[in-house]
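To the wet lab folks,

You asked to see what we're planning to order before we commit. Fair enough. Below is the target structure as tokens, and below that is the sequence we designed to fit it. If anything looks off to you, flag it before the synthesis order goes out.
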């Protein structure tokens, strides 16, 4: 009865409604039927387009709330308020201001801040200005790596700062064609992995090793520390010679070759890249081979620890014809442009 009464009132009031409002209500009713046909599992799922349509119709004709049945009027009003907020949030976003800096510059700022633990934003900003980048110091501070606590160097930096004053020495054995034993002696600088001395003997003594140390270093160019193992060949004569040259003797712990890792790695390279491929005929033959390998090791061979450079830095050659020169009879080759 109530429904019939509402229908009669709607029919009586229809002549007084504007034509546009009637068309709007009809459009809303038709759209609701479309939404109901897309019902999934008995539940109506309006899309963003449906919400936008209903909100726009509500903006233009607020009276359509009377014919909306698939959602509550409060829901439609809430959609309208949400759209209003999003619209003005988008409208309020500033399209001016400073332009965003490039990704390469951001990466460079982060790299500088990570590689230089003691640098702050002013120092990095100054370096960037010298490199031709126009950027504000506040922007540099924004993209720097945030640290916890005071800046401090790492162990790698600490060891690199002390490496130039450290050298290491050791003795290795090479058999000859007659099954006799020859003894090679090497000294290496830790900082540039430079093989500063190599020699061979049939009878290593403390006096012979002390003489090799004297010949390896000038008196004004000796390292501050010498790392060695606890071989009994290093007698009191060797320690006295080191002390006289201003070198502090640093023997490793017993049975701990890893504490002298640089020279152990060098001896391993000498074996793998040289003496393991040669039958040694005698002392003079081995000395000549090792001297040739030492020149190759210092001047030609690239090292991973030196960023693919040689201990005696090789220049980068970009022009010329590439030629090769055999080393150790063709066991290795040196490539250069001429």
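Sequence we intend to order:
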């Amino acid at each position: 009865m109530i429904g019939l009464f509402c229908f009669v009132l709607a029919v009586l009031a229809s002549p007084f409604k504007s034509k546009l409002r009637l068309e709007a209500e009809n459009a809303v009713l038709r759209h609701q039927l479309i939404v109901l046909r897309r019902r999934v599992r008995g539940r109506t799922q309006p899309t963003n387009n449906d919400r936008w349509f209903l909100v726009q119709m509500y903006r233009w004709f607020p009276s359509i709330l009377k014919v909306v049945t698939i959602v509550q009027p409060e829901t439609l009003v809430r959609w309208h308020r949400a759209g209003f907020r999003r619209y003005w949030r988008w409208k309020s976003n500033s399209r001016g201001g400073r332009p965003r800096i490039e990704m390469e510059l951001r990466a460079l700022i982060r790299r500088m801040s990570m590689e230089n633990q003691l640098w702050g934003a002013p120092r990095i900003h100054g370096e960037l200005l010298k490199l031709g980048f126009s950027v504000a110091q506040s922007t540099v501070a924004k993209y720097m790596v945030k640290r916890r606590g005071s800046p401090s160097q790492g162990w790698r930096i600490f060891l690199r700062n002390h490496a130039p004053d450290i050298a290491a020495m050791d003795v290795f054995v090479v058999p000859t064609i007659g099954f006799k034993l020859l003894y090679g002696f090497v000294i290496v600088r830790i900082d540039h992995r430079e093989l500063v001395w190599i020699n061979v003997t049939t009878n290593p003594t403390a006096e012979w090793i002390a003489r090799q140390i004297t010949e390896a270093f000038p008196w004004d160019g000796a390292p501050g520390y010498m790392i060695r193992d606890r071989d009994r060949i290093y007698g009191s004569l060797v320690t006295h010679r080191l002390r006289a040259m201003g070198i502090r003797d640093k023997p490793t712990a017993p049975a701990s070759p890893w504490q002298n890792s640089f020279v152990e790695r060098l001896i391993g390279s000498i074996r793998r890249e040289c003496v393991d491929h040669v039958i040694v005929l005698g002392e003079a033959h081995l000395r000549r081979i090792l001297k040739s390998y030492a020149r190759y090791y210092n001047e030609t061979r690239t090292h991973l620890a030196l960023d693919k450079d040689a201990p005696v830095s090789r220049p980068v050659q970009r022009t010329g014809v590439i030629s090769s020169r055999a080393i150790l009879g063709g066991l290795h080759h040196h490539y250069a442009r001429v």
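Structural context that might help your review: The mean pLDDT is 82. DSSP finds twelve helices and seven strands in the chain.

Thanks,
Computational group
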